[in-house]
Amino acid sequence: MYILALAILLGLAVAVVTEIVYEVAPVVSKVKYLNNPEILFPLLAVIAVWVTDTSILGAYGLGGDNWLDVVGSGLAVAGLTKASDAVVNYLNK
Asked: Which residues have a Cβ under 8 Å from the Cβ of 12 and sit 6 or more positions away?
């Protein structure tokens, strides 16, 4: 339960950082692949998981190689954040 809360909170922090990056550094929007937030957000989520040394998949016994755990946990953080945003938007209707 705490792992899901950690993943959602880490994802919300990454979402805020993504918005700040686009506001402060407009040069990022000119880079070919980074101008799409759907690509930059999971990339920043993987970086955040790596920096904080968080293992979302390892908590559920799905750990593998170190790089696989970091990338999988980062994508899990990005996916949980998008899913929680969709639930909040649905409830606000």
From this structure: 81
State the pTM of this model.
0.85
> In the numeric block, which tokens belong to residue 37?
């937030």
Tell me what pLDDT residue 76 has.
92
Residue 28 has pLDDT above 90, yes or no: no
Q: Is the pLDDT of residue 46 over 90?
A: yes
The set of residues, in sequence order, having a beta carbon less than 8 Å from that of 11 and lying 6+ positions away, is: 45, 77, 78, 80, 81, 84
DSSP structure string for 1-64: -HHHHHHHHHHHHHHHHHHHHHHH-GGGGGSTTTTSHHHHHHHHHHHHHHHHT--HHHHTT---
Residue 66 makes CB contacts below 8 A (sequence gap 6+) with none
